[in-house]
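The material for today's practical consists of a large collection of protein records. Read left to right, the backbone structure tokens trace the chain's path through space. An example says more than a description, so a record of this kind follows:
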Amino acid sequence: MPLSPGTRLGRYEIRAKIGEGGMGEVYRARDEKLNRDVAIKVLPSAFSENPDRLLRFEQEAQAVGTLNHPNILAVYDVGVHENSPYVVSELLEGHSFRELLDDGPIASRKAIEYAIQIAHGLSAAHEKGIVHRDLKPDNLFLTKDDRVKILDFGLAKLSQPSTSDIEQTDIATRRIHTNPGTVMGTVGYMSPEQVRASAVDHRSDIFSFGAVLYEMLSGQRAFRGESAIETLNAILKQEPSELSASNTNITSAVERVVWHCLEKSPDRRFQSASDVAFALESLSGVTSHPSQQTLIERALPAKQVWNRERIVWTVLCGLLLLAVVALAFIVFRREPATQRTARLALATPAETTFEGEITISPDGRRVVFSAMKDGKWGLWMRPLDSTKAEPIPATEGGSSPFWSPDNRFIGYFSNSKLFKIDAAGGRPQALCDVSEDSGATWNRDGVILFGGPEGIHRVSAQGGATSLVTKVSPQEEAHRWPYFLPDGHHFVFLGDASTTEEHHIKLGSLDSNESQNLFGAVSRIVYASPGYLLYVNQGSLVALPFDATSLKVTGEPTSVAERIKDVGENHHFDFSVSEEGTLAYQSGTVNSQLTWFDRAGQKQSAVGDVVGRDSLALSPDGRIAATGLLDADGRQSDIWLVDLTRNTTSRLTFDPAGDGTPVWSPDGKRIVFGSNRASGGRDVDLWEQAASGVGDEQVLLKSASAKFPTSWSRDGQVILFENWEQQLKGAIWVMSTADRQARPLLQSKSFNQLQGQFSPDGHFIAYASDESGSMEIFLQRYPTTSEKWQISSGGGITPLWRADGKEIFYTSLDKMMSVEVKLGSKVETGLPRELFRSAISHHGLSYDYAVSPDGQRFLISNAVDVNEVAPMTIVLNWNAALKK
């Protein structure tokens, strides 16, 4: 039964029906939670009658949901409504290729352009082990901005058609070969192995791709008959008509690519979609004269031309391939490991001064940076699979390097000009004059954007005249650090201003001088797959979820790395990310000074020296601050005590290992802290020391995990601590001070629960958790019950209580927040309100502020300096930690 407007499917509200087909009906709907329009395909209820089939569908949709590529329809969600499964995806505007082909063939140049996009999309899916199995014009969509989207991965696994029902659209996507004996696909575009119901792999998609490309070029189907059976026989036994017979403008090189896709044997086709894309991209320089044979033509086998020499070479190549496969089986027969984040320090060239300005190539294979040797400053390049970096000749004085999207060229600034140079070597080419060095970005259409005081400028990658694509407002000083989004049309940049309040990350477009504010920040900005904006906030690199299709922020920021170095003027923080998931950055030491602020955010007084710091705790009487001070390399720390009335500092711990996260006992006589001294750095245990410094430190709790104390109950009997066990989420544990026995209090395999803080009466705890999708502050009774309250909105960490238990404070990035609470048998919570903003020197999830007992003053680890240049850090699979 069709759904009427206003019907709700979970959080989605149906707005209008926009299409239907063999696999169900499609509706425009509104995602109320993320405030965006989506498309929902509702499948017939008969498809969910078999529980196993429905489970396979859900598993398949989850696999497809991992695909994030500009040429693949993004799948957001799946569900069931009144026994009918549905799939939620991005909403597209444009038309299908079936509608395009109804008007005849597509111009050769456009057809190749579209085919390249399709090949890239298939390649991305195949790399994840996902095969479409029903590629056809109906499942290809052209958006209004001329981008091709592959539709309907993962649906036909519900249908499982019989051999007599093969005309039904079947869109199966599986991580293993199709079971022999089951025909899957759509007549006219099926591969021979699908027709035979044989095992199917990614090369079946390449055959279907060839059939679609044939139709795009000729306007006729490659295989057609009077009936489905005749069409299937044509696929198995016949060859399509020559393309040049229907279109004399089609070159022999293009035709050979099509024939190579349509080989009957999978072994004789292109062996990967990326190879297809490469062959098509190489055709950009091919002449339209059919008599000219290019390298691509000579690289492809002639259709059905065999001789003795070719047979011999084919047999030899086959034997070699079998040997390689056997060797690969031996080497890689173990199950692949789950992708994990890995960090490594990248040594810089000997006898050089490392300046930074890192940029990593889109494919993640090479990094370019600035360095000085023998008094000469220039660009250097190092492949990540090499131990050696080499200077790039003729780039003396080069700064702010950036890559072309095809990894071939490096752009940079020097002597008030914008240059590009071939990464393989050669002389640099001046593209245009520039007024300043404030970043540039390059899209696949050969457009380069660069910043300046007037706005964002545009210039061709071949050089020439420039034009403005944005204009600064009266409140702004410049537009800087542009970065293209995946569509190559929209871009993000920094709107630089004279005051912090006026700085914004902005969104621009190539076809309009207008831009819009996304959010406030003072940093350069980049887009990172599969959907994040990376920028620096208070010295920390953060990842903000961002939908590049709807052009909207979709979540809260998460810290990725600490102490990111500011390498120059105009907020040039030093980090770069590749398309395939490698992050490179340069860190420095974030220095801070303890500073008192009132509730309005007015600075009252500074205490102590400017130092590197990683944690802070105030004594119960508010007179002494315990803090972890970082050593020279910014990694290890010891506990120091700062007398806030006399402005003196004394050291409490002296072990060369790392000591941090101090927590005071309720009588102010002892301090518990975390230290890795007993494990040689592997584990973090709970230790205790007298606040007077008299006596030796004692270990309270030792185990194979990382433990960080967060709160000590008012009666002194219980200590709360974070427990991070391998492969588990962060949990809140409780330890009895009497017998030193510990047990989990709040623990989940699905989300983190951290920073537990006892209320003054000891009957409640406030804590931070990401169970809602982002870190928020929750309130729960102690000992715990199922009753709890979320008291923050818009993100929150590091909760602290006022001494009378009537107010909870927390931070949200640089904002100091407050919530009033009334505790008892009935709990009442007020609305969160912002007290003030400050340069809080956040170090991950550690406490970098404290509150006076009366709640009227805030002692903040105030960021005042970032220095101490460090080597490059390379992070492989940087976003794997976010997925966890």
Observations:
- Residues 1-91 form a domain with the Phosphorylase Kinase; domain 1 fold (CATH 3.30.200.20).
- Residues 155-185, 285-313, 328-338 have pLDDT under 50 and may be disordered.
- The chain has five domains: 1-91, 93-299, 306-336, 342-436+485-588+871-883, 589-867.
